[in-house]
Amino acid sequence: MPGGDDLVHLSYQVPSVTDYLRLRKDGGLSAFSEEAARIGLEGTLFAVTLKLKGRTIGMGRIVGDGGCFMQIVDIAVDPRHRGKGLGKRIMAALMEHARTVLPETAFLSLLADPPADQLYAKFGFKETAPASIGMSCRVT
């Protein structure tokens, strides 16, 4: 996108519930109710949004207790804007925050679906198996 990346504005703000749900859906991420999204977004420690001409086209968040355990979540870029380094830009901003604000002993984790795991590896994330196994469940 020649000259286009400078048109994408990065801000340190939590996305709106509407933008959050849209980006998750468009990005192929699991769905949440509007109520769950509102509650979850209120608990954000740090967030990044990318906007193009006023429209939110990317996001990423750090959630957790702020001292010991944090997780990077909701890395999403509108499919029409993928392949332009925007996911890397989101991750760079999240990692800069983590490195400058979080305690050096903090544990920062994420769940990665291929091929996004290749992006996260560039920021120092490694698979934990077989030493530990990531696990999850949906509350139903």
Could you write a compact summary of the structure shown?
The chain has 140 residues and is an alpha+beta fold.
Strand order of the largest sheet: 1-2-3-4-5
Unreliably modeled segments: none
* Average pLDDT level: 93
Structural class: alpha+beta
Instruction: Assign a percent range to the helix content.
Output: 25-40%
Cα(first) to Cα(last) distance is 43 Å
Beta-strand content estimate: 15-25%
Total of helices: 4
- Give the overall form: globular
Q: How many strand elements?
A: 5
The biggest beta sheet is recorded as: 5 strands, mixed
Succession of helices and strands:
EHHEEEHEH
Radius of gyration, taken over Cα atoms and rounded to an integer in Å: 15 Å
3D structure, described in words:
The protein has 140 residues and is of the alpha+beta class. The protein is 29% helix and 24% strand. The protein has helices at residues 17-26, 34-42, 86-101, 116-121; strands spanning 8-11, 46-52, 55-64, 69-77, 107-110. The chain has a five-stranded mixed beta sheet with strand order 1-2-3-4-5. It is globular.
